[in-house]
């Protein structure tokens, strides 16, 4: 097992911004998949009730 040291000379905010961006993108993709799944499950009802 190798150990890695983190250099504190680099900007500390860059990795955090990248992490937040990745978390945000993952959350958006999950929400999009859930929305698409819910739409497919209720597609007939939506078309009948709301004429979509």
Supply database-style keywords.
rod-shaped, mainly alpha, 2 helices
Explain this structure to me?
It contains 2 helices and no strands. With 52 residues, it is mainly alpha-helical. The model has no long low-confidence stretch (mean pLDDT 76). It is rod-shaped and about 45 Å long.
Helix content: over 70%
Shape type: rod-shaped
Helix/strand order, N-terminal first: HH
Number of helices: 2
Main sheet?
none
Overall pLDDT confidence? 76
Q: Which ranges are low-confidence, i.e. pLDDT below 50, for 5 or more consecutive residues?
A: none
Structural class: mainly alpha
Give me the count of strands. Answer: 0
CA-to-CA gap between the ends?
57 Å
The radius of gyration computed from the alpha-carbon positions, rounded to a whole number of angstroms, is: 21 Å
Amount of beta strand? under 5%
Helices, strands, pairings?
Elements: H1 13-41, H2 43-50
Quick overview of this protein structure:
The protein is an all-alpha fold and 52 residues long. It has helices at residues 13-41, 43-50.
């Amino acid at each position: 097992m190798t150990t890695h040291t983190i250099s504190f000379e680099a900007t500390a905010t860059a990795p955090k911004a990248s992490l937040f961006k990745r978390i945000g993108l993952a959350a958006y993709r999950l929400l999009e998949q859930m929305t698409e799944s819910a739409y497919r499950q209720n597609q007939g009802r939506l078309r009948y009730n709301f004429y979509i």
